[in-house]
Amino acid sequence: MKLESVSIKRSSNLNEKWVQDQVADDPSILGLGDLVLKDKERLQPNAGRLDLLLQDPETLKRYETEIQLGPTDESHIIRTIEYWDIERKRYPQYEHAAVIIAEEITSRFLNVIQLFNGAIPLIALKMTAYKIADEYALTFVRVLDEMTYGLVDEDETPEPTDRSFWESKRG
After folding, report:
1. What pTM, to 2 d.p., does this model score?
2. Which of 43, 75, 83, 85 has the most CB within a 10 Å radius?
């Protein structure tokens, strides 16, 4: 059987709400772990609505998720970062990550969001819809993962601190 990819943006049968519902019903399809839905279309003060708020039930890490039909654009990237910032300030007791999902992550915007990565825990997922008979399926591929930094001393070899060290170096 040959899979037929479908543009959600140009589809008369599919839309952003359909994508939200698919992810809300089973957040594990994103490939970010066994997440649970905390909220959908969450109202942001003076900023619009966050598409999906997901959470890892074990670590309590929250994922502020914005869905973009078609290629990424600057307004959705800014919105994703803005929603992440609002949520992390409102709920500082949790770890947060910004997630942008788009049908196409263009190289221009991939370069831009890579600049933010490190200062902002940002994940970019490429979404593809497939038509199989009369049904539709979604796949998600992680194009950009959040940058994690090691501890300062992690790459340094510790000096031995035995008695001779203290007598010779610290006298």
Report:
1. 0.81
2. 83
